[in-house]
Fold this protein.
Amino acid sequence: MSESSPNFSNRFPFYGPQGRLVLVDSALEAVSRGSTTIGIKTPKFAIISSQIKPTHPLIEPSEKIFSIDFHAGATGSGYIGDILQLIDALRLEAQRHRLTYETSIDIDSLAKHLSTFLHNYTTYAVRPQAASMILAGADQTGIQLYQVDPSGTFFRGSGFAIGQSSEIALDVMTKEYRTDMTQEEAIELGEKAIEKALGEKPIVETGVVTQNSFRKLPLEKT
């Protein structure tokens, strides 16, 4: 039975012939058309960077780097409305944990909460969130970096790239990544990876996580 047949679209929960979730695949396709976005982690810090797409001269560009708590930040690629909803979900969970336990939430728990939030959209007849997220933070286990996809699948690692031409960006990062990079070198590598992916000099917004805090760097327009 083809995906274009009437009976196919009525099947729940919308599995394709290869056993893949059609709506999740569509969400991932939307992510692949979004801003090129990267994350890089070393033992001492992590950076998250995202391309700011050009807009009409009279329109301010959308914010791409978000503070979740004093020790964590996040960015995403895909539909900006979905990204903002996921940012709100992360912030709410971080504040709920702080009010309940009087401590900051660990990054693994934050990633798992986002994973569960996204996975719930795949089990009902609703549109999955068309956004992949990169989450960076510091907790008692050290510096952490996660990627969470629309299916709810999440990964922990030292480097991620999502969005437009992310394979090219990830290849650049993989070849030049070093655990002893300085913050300046990591920021330059992130900008280089995004530039290589796009084939042009982009405007990039960046956030930095250290053991003490998360901060968003001033935006430098080129």
